[in-house]
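User: hey, got a sec? need Alpha/beta hydrolase folded
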Amino acid sequence: MWYKWKNIKVNYEIVGEGKPILMIHGYTPDHRLMMGCMEPIFDAMSNYKRVYIDLPGMGRTEGSDQIKNSDDMLEVVRSFVNEIIGSESFLVAGESYGGYLTRGLIHEMPDQIEGALFICAMIKPHDRVVPHREIILKNPELLARLSDQKREMYESIAVVQDERTWEHFKTYVMPGLLKADEVFLERLRADGYGFTFDDALASDVFEKPVLFLNGKQDTSVGYKDAWGILDLYPRGTYVALDRAGHSLEAEQSVLFNALVKEWLFRCEEANDERTSS
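Assistant: Yep! Here you go:
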């Protein structure tokens, strides 16, 4: 499906019916990353409408000179919400750069958002605190089967190298990486990766249920920066998982699924409490 913002056709997919959950992927993959994360959770849950978006320059959504910085990227997402979700309250899940956009969305429309999930979220556009590179499980035989390009992409984030995490990466992450508009994305990263209102985010208190899922071996965004903002989320759960990097959802899938389901329960409970009071 398509939504048009100015001259940009934004690709999106909707799965299921019920309470909307906006799914925002990270920088250079596409909506398939979030589908690989989240759809297994809803196998036995039929009361959520999952809204997956391809950000500009990623997936089937083309980049554009009209998007000069992350403020513009956020405006695309906010306008998309207004058109596709409307005035209905919703949940939002953001991975990596999508987590950064999630914080921006909370800044602009906090009353409409009932809860937020941050998966390996980018807290700072620059000067991040990240751990030293560490591979927990190595699989030389697996890596030897891959082409140089595939091996380089997979090794860049995989701290648990096994058949299951490779299949997940190959199916849900790599297709978006290969399709990304690298020229557009490199320009955005160099010229306007951070919000112009970053200072305001440091005082945004969000009192709805929140979950931060972080990998102890994540060298992309780290795990310490998310801990540093936890006081802004009085109902926030923070988890830093060992044996997990920037592909936490695949490397710790059992805990990922359990913790996300617990977050959904807290969101439902909080909404029931607000409705009855």
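Quick note: The first helix runs from residue 31 to 38. Let me know if you need anything else on Alpha/beta hydrolase.
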